[in-house]
Here is the input.
Amino acid sequence: MRKEPGGAAAAPARVLVVDQDPLVRRVVRDALTGSGISVVAEAGDGAEAILLAARHRPDVVLMDIVLPAFDGPITIRRIIAATPLVRVIVFTAAKDTDVGVTALQAGASGYVTKDVDLSTLPRVIRAVASGEAAVSRGFVSVLIDRLRAAPEGNVGLRPVRSPLTPREWEVLDLLSSGLTTEEVTDTLVLSSETVRSHVQRAMRKLDVHSRQDAIDAVRKLRGSAATGVSDAYSAVAA
Here is the structure.
């Protein structure tokens, strides 16, 4: 059980499990339900995951990065765009560090490989449902190395907790890199009106009054994330 402020018990974390292998889904479901986690639905591909996430609005989506229909990063982005309060944990056999970085850049709050002890999964899910992030100890060192090699301004880096939606981050990331509004519309396949709406909403959330102020504000947020990366990610597996 999670705890609400003041120590009151909250409802069990609600989870959508996404994996193309039915056996993996069953094993994960059994491990979670046996520890008090509520598995609200299961999906076998990216399209189904997006649909079920919007329908059930779980606290956490636990998903593989390798999926039919839509690949993992697209699935993550679409889930979060449709249901911004849902947090995503990638649970995969892929040990390619680039895959993990891509998943986090897409908006995932955690990246855990399938060789982790299943008994740790409920703790990981509760932590992420409570607003923390979760990666393995080894992956933290990868993130630190990436940050040291990141371009000036840490373009693309996003803090774990942010008032901006993933799409607002995408728009401001592209503007920060020097693209014009027209180039952003072409890159994201959006109308110029939609891009302007994202910028205006981001400005209100950041309490700034110009596009440049918004860009400066997200650069500060990225700088804070870079400075505190070792604290922002919970080490959940050896």
Remarks:
- Residues 226-238 have pLDDT under 50 and may be disordered.
